[in-house]
Structure formats: structure tokens, C-alpha cells
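Recall the central idea of this unit: under ordinary conditions, the amino acid sequence of a chain determines the structure it adopts. In this exercise we apply that idea directly, starting from the sequence alone.
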Amino acid sequence: MKESIKSILFLLLIFAIHADTDAIHADTDQKMLSDLYKTGKILLRPELVLDDQSMPKGVIFESPFDIEEDPRGNVYVLDYRANNIKIFSSEGKFINTIGRQGQGPGDFNGPFLLAVTKDRIYVWDFRNRRICVLTHDGEFIISKEIPKIRERIQNIKPLPNGDVIVEKEITYYEDLDRPQECKIELYSADLEYKKTIYSKNIWRTRYITKPGLRNIPQPYPPLVYWDVSPRGQIVLGYSEKYEIEIYDSQGTKISSFAHSYEPVKMAKADKDAFFKNIVSFSSDGQRKRGASDSIVKNTKFPDHKPAFQGLLVDSEGNILVCPYREKRTENYRYFDAFDPDGKFIGHVQIVGEANLPWRNSRIVDHSFWAIKMNSDESQVKIVRYQISSISGTK
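Accordingly, the structure predicted from this sequence is:
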């Protein structure tokens, strides 16, 4: 009898130890992102993969370009070449495909950018020159024409109050010595213009007219980077300096902060990589990588790189800024973290195969979606990554 009691007590003790261990792991999983940043390292761990096998026969990823989630956790993948949006549940189950190639209401022709709210989908339909608004079921609501060829939509993000922020870049072809103009504009849910929040001249590209009109991409230009916080604030910075500005949801500037940095000198490897990564298209649509002789001849490099190359606001409102690094292999592998008020949290190293989604997708809780493809771009996957601490992994 005593032996039985001892066995029961021993089993209860083991159960209690496991329960405590599970509680510790649960507490680790619930750590705030800001606490993870304070450790100086984060791990980006893949936890769910979507590929062609995740969809019905005959449906494939052709050229996914943007990813968004709705408040229920459903995932929307904008496929540029397929001219549609593929929708999955938060568990990765295929739900539906909406959109098709065409020019009619709800049709797409080269959809480039995606934004999703609780009841609407916004799409920059590049070749049709319009922003389309649809329901989550793909029903057409309204569209806004962008008729001027000189205007190009660079980004779209919704605000919690239903308004939409649109980044527009204007090229003044009638005056090629004039820089491009970046505008951050506020619109209603029905795409009625409200105001311009921010405007900045940039030199993303320059033009030469001999032997014909050609655009010359500018190496490492200062650009405008921005994101929307969970509180509906617009956080943006022009990377000529390490300065970040914060605007409220009505487009009024409420604060700003600066951070010290050491400008990174331009190296030969940077110049070689810049020319190698230039992509052009032949008259028959074939893609070619590498700069032409005229681009090489007419390109001038600055002495130093800009202060940073990316900005992101996570789901806690923390502001993440990606500075340039002296070692090229370290670019996008480190970032500076600030709290929602701009107080510096720490310098953070990214461990794992992925980088943060500085351009596409966004961080929701502790995870984000990213587009992954083979080196020859023959196979595409959509991967959800979990942000966790190094110490919390096996």
C-alpha cells in the first residue's frame, strides 16, 4: 500500500514538474516583441508553408507579389502574372481565388499592390491604371482611375478607422531635369482624396535623351519609407538622415526622433552588385539581368549610402529601422528597434533563413508571411515565420 502511495505521489510530482515547464514555455511564447528585441537576437522560424500542393489541381503560384491578412487571420496572396488573389485560412487551407484578367469591374491586368481591411480589399491594378476596391468575396465596390502615366502607386496601407494611405510617385516627363516627387496621401474608404500628409523630392531614376529616352536607375538614393501603427499613426522617414516622423490618423505631425549613425562608404562590391541586379526587358518580354553599357557609363555613385533602407512597425507599435551595414552579408540581418514613442530599445540581429518583410507583408502578433523562391525562380512558396527568442528554441 505504501509503495502504491509513493508511486502516486511520484507521478503527481512528475506531472507538476511538466506543468511548470509547460507554463514556462507558454510564458516564453507570450513574451512581448519588445522583450525579444532587448535580448539582441531574434530567430525567424518557419512554421507553415503554402505551395502549389496547397491548392486544387490546376491552380498554381505564377508570380506572387504581395501578401496580406484580414482581421480573422485569412491570408491573401496577390498573384501578378495570374491576375488574381488566392485566399487561404490561417491554418493554410485553400479557400478561394478571386479576380481574373480583363478590364471590366473587378478584373485585373498586372495587379501589383494589395491592402486588406475587415471588409474590403484594395488592389493597385497597374496596367489598368486604377485602384480597385472589392469585398472579401471579390465583388466589385468602386475603383479610382490613375489616368496620368507619370503617376505610379508605390504602396497602399489601411488605417484602423477605415481610411487608406496611398504612396504616389510622380515623374515629370515634361521636365526630365526635375526629380521625382513622392507623396503620402490620405483617402477615405471609398478613395476620396482628403489631404497630402507628406511630400519629398527623390531621385529614384534619372533620364538621358541620347541616343533615345532611357531611364538610369540611381544607386542607393535616399527614399521615403513608412508604415502604419496599430494605433493608426503614420510612421515615416526620409533616409537622407536618420530621422523618423510620426503623424496621427488625420495626417498631423505629432512627434519625431533622430538616431545617431555612422555613414557607410560606397565600396566596389556595392557598385558591382548594383549593376548585376538591374533587370530589363526586351521587346518580346524576355527578362534580362545586368546593366547595359549606357547605364554603366551614365551612372554616378554617391560617396556614402543613405542612413537606412527599410522601416517597419510591428503589431505592438514598435518601430523597426534597417540601417546599412559595412559588410554586405550583414545587410537586412540587423535592425534598430524603438518603442512606439521613439525610445531606443536595442540593436537586433536576425538569426535564421529569412529576413523581416521590409516591403511586403507585415508582422501580426509574432508572425509574418513572406514569399520564397528558388534561385532560378522556378518554384515559389509562401512561408509563415514565427518570431521567437534564441534561448527559447531547441
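The chain is about 10% helix and 40% strand.
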